[in-house]
Design brief:
It contains three helices and no strands. By secondary structure, the protein is mainly α.
Amino acid sequence: MVKARELREMSDEQLALTLKETTEHLFRLRLQAQSERLDAPSELRKQRRLIARIKTIQQQRATAGGAAPAAKEPNHA
């Protein structure tokens, strides 16, 4: 299992590649879960959490880089 510290040490390209691989792995696990019994059902949760960690780190880097996301204003329509 990849720790957040290890993810933070990765470059942006490595993070993007890891995110893509993890997303594909989660997809395959979901297909397997629907078609047959999983050997380790906890693997689904681990993959979802890894994806969340990667996306969080990417968002932190984007925010720290000056590309702060626009504040959401309430919709009064």
